[in-house]
Amino acid sequence: MTSIPQEAVGSRFDPHQMLHARERTWAALRGIRERMRPGITEEEAKAEAAEVFRALGMERLWHPVIIRIGANTTKTYRERSEPVRLGENDIYFIDLGLVFEGHEGDVGDTFVIGHAPEKQACADAARELFRATAEAWRSRGLTGEALYAFAEQQAEAMGWRLNHEIKGHRVSDFPHSVHKAGDLGEYGDRPSSGLWILEIQIAHPTEPYGAFYEDLLTRD
């Protein structure tokens, strides 16, 4: 690990446990996806998520479960959802922050049910934009600030609007918040592997839907 204050970790920190928490959190996300069906509300999905977490041995949440459906996919985590049920041909995303073995996982992804090709294109674009931005970090040594400038340029070139309020953040052994690291998009150094979450949220330029993808930045 580095000696930069924004990348400080606790005495229990173990990079292997970070990867374990990441893998378990992705498993939880897949478990919730299997339960998503037409007619379900965001609150119902969150209630069912608790069963998934128990089966996986989650210790605790480090941020609230976020499930957004339809037009709510354009909202940030600070904004309240409008009441909505998942439609037959609809889009939704899942954002999880879970703790396993004292380490924080944080993942998010967007899915489409039924036949909604334009919404599927949005979900695919969020994943592709994440992949391209993460690869730019690996290959070009970009700072956190430069990463989000790159993501904005790429999103525009792809025909989507990047949500500027979503800028990524630190994770660590729980709780990472004691280190006061700030947002990845405001970090002036090159972020180290295994410590930062790259968050990508995009929206259609005119239609009321968007997509979200996030994962741990790693060298691999």
UniProtKB/TrEMBL annotation:
UniProt xrefs under CDD domains: APP_MetAP (cd01066)
One Pfam assignment: Peptidase_M24
InterPro entries, A to Z: Creatinase/aminopeptidase-like, Pept_M24, Peptidase_M24B
Residue ranges constituting the Peptidase M24 domain according to the UniProt record: 17-179
Official protein name in the record: (Fe-S)-binding protein
